[in-house]
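Bench notes, bay 3.
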Amino acid sequence: MTRGLPILTRIREAQGYSLRALAAKVGMSYVALYRLECGETDPRLGTLRKLAKALNVTVAELIGEGKPARKRARR
């Protein structure tokens, strides 16, 4: 069993997504997303990329590495 992705849970909840809503947005079942968050399964890189894109964060942020991305200034 893995350690899970608690940061994913925090980001998802902070952005107001339910498990079902985020899972639907990235094309996976909410049970699969729940298992990722709890650490029952390890995510594939493609899944992490889809989740990161949907949440507008980096993959590194989802797995708890690196600093949050800075918002780029508009010119």
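Next record in the batch:
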Amino acid sequence: MRSEQEMLDLILNTARREGRIRAVILNGSRANPNAKKDALQDFDIVYIVRDLQSFLAEPGWIDRFGERIVMQTPDEMDDPNLVDRQRYAYLMQFCDGNRIDLTLMTRPAFDAQPPDSLSVLLLDKENNLPPFPPPSETDYLPKPPTELEFFNCCNEFWWVCPYVAKGLVRQEILYAKHMHDEVVRPQLIRMLTWYIGFKTDFKLNPGKNGKYFKRYLEAELWGFLEKTYADADYEASWQALFATCRLFSQVAQTMAKNFTYPYPLQDDQRVSAYLQELHLYK
């Protein structure tokens, strides 16, 4: 596997030799001073370029980065017929284990987008980009919920839980799993994110999709969270649903007290009782 330095040298030397590439920016976890370093981190790279269309007319130009296992070009997937592109991404997984998420961007497109706090300027051939502040997680920190956001999270959670149970009663495991994992669980993750934010004064990053939850949750809550995951067994799925409800109820009521927001306790109690009835009905 090529080392981090080998990859950065390849990325920068490509830019230095290619006149159409005017600047190189590193984003993401490799720009994050607080992220744990490992060999599997992506290289999130932006090339600010002139004449973006000329790159697209030469698809093989990216072969210089190495042999690929697989690649995705999301801009092409979104709109394959767009003519005047201002940005274009190549998501490349290489055979040696490295990955580069490379985005070509025109200067007007770069100037038009909001700044990313996890950015490091690696190369600026024209020395005309604005100064980059030291990289930080500022843009990735959780924010306290408004009362409406808190209510909507609770309402969506308790509204959809019966759908999970209905799928389990009917022996429709794929439907039940979808409702649990794609609708109910995101509300739990959202609530836990607020909980960790409150615990840390909203100054620490809990990570995308709960990546760092284990660092910040008490061992007991982490254990409860683990129990919300199940295999395709129906009874295990019932128990995972009940664990999800118990954890959400506990954390949401704590957050309601912390923010002095009303908590829909009646919804909680009635839905929880209804789920137990459906479980017996099965």
